[in-house]
Predict the 3D structure of the following.
Amino acid sequence: MVYRMNEKIIDGKKVSAEIREKIKKFGDILIKESNRTPGLAVVLVGENPASRVYVKNKIEKTKEVGFNSIEHRLDENVSEEELLSVVNKLNDDDEVQGILVQLPLPKHINADLVLDTIKPVKDVDGFHAENVGKLWSGLNSLVPCTPLGCSILLKKLNPDLSGKNAVIIGRSNIVGKPMAALLLGMNATVTIAHSRTKNIEELVKSADILVAAVGIPEMVKGNWVKKGAVVIDVGINRIDRDGKKILVGDVDYDECIENSSKITPVPGGVGPMTIACLLLNTLFTSYEQFGVAPIKLSDIFE
Ligand code: NDP
């Protein structure tokens, strides 16, 4: 049976639109109180088509919530030194509260060095080592946008995951690892699987919450999913099916919806949450940088 519109679907498009509305509301208050407008700078290196699409969407949504968008498009062959100099200028620019360097970067550039050059307070992607350390220590920090979006979707279903088993497939710094820290913070018992893990299928069968962030189209099959599990599909994979190019996730949606109690579709699940959370991080850090009484996630979601 194919489900498309039913109560099992976690509608990331709808939730993200609600979040962006709240960001606009709190952003307007901030602009009025501080007489300053939050600025989000995006640095794009090269012509990667997927990155160009992401950046275009980010810029559009930034303007929609009333923030300033600052764009730097650099040639594929830009030197590391030149890129670092752009980041340092943005670090010192009072018009810029958030800096995002779009990944992946060309091979001749040390991405870790670039990310660690961004001032931690402007690190709206949450990739700086200082923010990573704070996240794992349970301290207030800027949190990577995709796992933050997943955790907001999960919190709306159940804010306390005590006694629940969470399995994450994927251990990247962008998704898998920060997702584990967030799930621990929600009291789940967390297991991370990766390419060297044996018997992934058995592990997934034990999951009350499954987060798939692998990059393998429809890897998770319907009979891997425990009855009643919540399935969060982070994957975005472009494949050819029946002569058409379509987007699918890392779980086989039409199969996995059967056993799951809730599931995110692709597209329209986690994807739109990522951009909303980027703007959320920009809002949080702008409150901090403008010296206006800070706001918290709970203020946005009350
Ligand atoms: P990475 O390629 O950085 O990480 C993939 C992870 O999956 C790695 O930890 C890898 O293990 C693991 N893996 C690979 N093959 C297997 C396997 N056969 N069995 C188990 N684990 C495996 O990807 P990202 O984390 O950046 O992204 C994951 C997916 O999420 C992609 O589809 C990406 O497009 C999507 N994505 C979506 C976003 C959104 O906004 N919705 C944002 C970011 C990513 P190992 O470490 O051992 O190599």
About this structure: The chain has a mean pLDDT of 95. The domain at 144-271 is CATH 3.40.50.720 (Rossmann fold). The beta strands are 39-45, 68-74, 98-101, 165-169, 189-193, 209-212, 230-233, 237-241, 244-248, 262-263. Residues 146, 169-172, 174-176, 193-197, 200, 213-216, 234-237, 250, 270-271, 274 surround NDP (CB under 6 Å).
